[in-house]
Amino acid sequence: MLWLDWYPQIPADGDYFREDNDLSDFELHDSDYNVPHDVKEGHFAVIAMDDRQNRATRFVIPLTCLDHPVFLTFLARAAEEYGFDGEGALTLPCRPRELERILSDQ
After folding, report:
1. 6, 15, 18, 95: least CB-packed within 10 angstroms?
2. In terms of C-beta density within 10 A (0-12 exposed, 13-18 middle, 19 or more buried), how is residue 98 classed?
3. What GO biological process terms does the UniProt entry carry, in alphabetical order (predicted)?
4. How far apart are CA 99 and CA 46, in angstroms?
């Protein structure tokens, strides 16, 4: 069974991780791109896919992560393993705690 944890937004206090599963945050904007409400300007959604535990965790992260060398490594691995032709959140082949470490550096 695949587990999917939702972390719908980054609170203003800098705590990137929320443990609620309020799916009301995932209503879509009425726009051409159908971006979920929790993905604010300057952010994007990724899913950290831990194949070892068969678990996926969704994060909404700032664009500043695109400068982080480890995050760039995850992007390269994602391109190899999954490609970038899908819609929605980008899937990264990494454990959620690895992504949490990157976010704590920001």
Report:
1. 15
2. middle
3. response to auxin
4. 10
Please give the structure tokens belonging to residue 9: 């937004």
Work out the burial of residue 94: count CB atoms within 10 Å of its CB; fewer than 13 is exposed, 13-18 middle, 19 or more buried. buried
The H-or-E segment that residue 48 falls in is strand 43-50
- Please write the tens of the pLDDT for every residue from 26-67: 444 444 467 778 888 999 999 998 878 788 899 999 999 999
How many angstroms separate the Cα of 21 from the Cα of each of 45, 61, 79?
A: 16, 17, 29
3-state SS class at 6: strand
Q: How far apart are alpha carbons 65 and 68 in whole angstroms?
A: 5
pLDDT computed for residue 33 by the predictor: 60
